[in-house]
């Protein structure tokens, strides 16, 4: 069994140890030390990074109580080594992980929900709760979690016996047994956990829930804590400042400014579509065959084509096929008929020109491809003949 220094002292960032064994595995080596402060991957937390005698530790895994440090260099059995943790990264993870304990503890005491899933990625974490939470519920959890930070309560580890454990109220999915490690955040949470935590809740600094959604009958939240929450705030602030400058708006009126902008854009879109339809009607030059009409245009939208088709049918045209070339060889089309035979016409068009689209008996629209406008007009002439 490797002695785990981080279990007793989460702040141990450099230590001396002795190499117990070092086995080669593929092109790497797995070094076992008599004691280690490197946290092996577990409980949703990634393995620590750092160095052993200046050699980078690439991975840390635990198996049967032994901690294996993966390196690119081998070590001699009995060799004395000096080890250094990537402390910035480790402390960031301690802040995040403890933040997750607080949020889970608060959600449990406010709503009785269990944490049924936890994932820690590089900057953010997701936590799954066993029941539904509204935006107000989430805001409550977030506020109480931050108040727990301001209280600066002690975070302690303990190893109760199986009997003591049976009498303790703690969060966990683990079967009670001797040697289970409990992390207690005084007055907030108690949970079985193998990871290192800071000594006081105040060291977490800040907790922010950045998103939530329904998940498997419960709720998945995405959250940040500690320095990652501060960095998230900084990034958000920069982006809000940019938007404020673009809108020439004050912070509190950004939403109103965006709404106004949206309204203006929608009005312009509407006006533009009216003008576009008028232009389409004016520039359409349909060819009439037996009371039916067709035209091949450019730069017209479905709306433009539909407007023209409606106009033709309203003015006594029996049926019409209107196309507009969007890219070389590809066309959008609308088909309209006062005789309710559009489905038959569209099926024929699609099959002759590798098209897609459909609609109702009297109107349909779609896309097709053709290298030759002559082939298209020949085909349409044959339908209308
Ligand atoms: Zn934990």
What are the low-pLDDT stretches, counting only 5+ consecutive residues below 50?
A: none
State the distance separating the first and last CA atoms: 91 Å
Biggest beta sheet attributes: 7 strands, antiparallel
Task: Output mean pLDDT.
Answer: 96
Structural class: alpha+beta
Number of domains: 3
**What is the beta-strand fraction?**
25-35%
Helix content: 25-40%
Number of helices: 9
Q: Provide the CATH top-level class of the largest domain.
A: Alpha Beta
Distinct compounds present: zinc ion
Describe the structure.
With 385 residues, this protein is an alpha+beta fold. It has three domains: 3-85, Beta Barrel (Elongation Factor Tu (Ef-tu), domain 3), CATH 2.40.30; 90-234, Threonyl-tRNA Synthetase, Chain A, domain 2 (2-Layer Sandwich), CATH 3.30.980; 277-384, Diaminopimelate Epimerase, Chain A, domain 1 (Roll), CATH 3.10.310.40. Helices cover 36% and strands 32% of the residues. The protein has nine helices and 22 strands. It has a seven-stranded antiparallel beta sheet, with no helix packed on it. Strands 17-18-19-20-22-21 form a six-stranded mixed beta sheet, with helices on both faces. Strands 10-11-16-15 form a four-stranded antiparallel beta sheet. The longest helix is centred in the last third of the chain and has 30 residues, at 254-283. The chain starts with a strand and ends with a helix. The mean pLDDT is 96. It binds zinc ion. Zinc ion binds at residues 43, 97, 101, 191, 193, 195. Residues 43, 97, 101, 191, 193, 195 line the site of zinc ion.
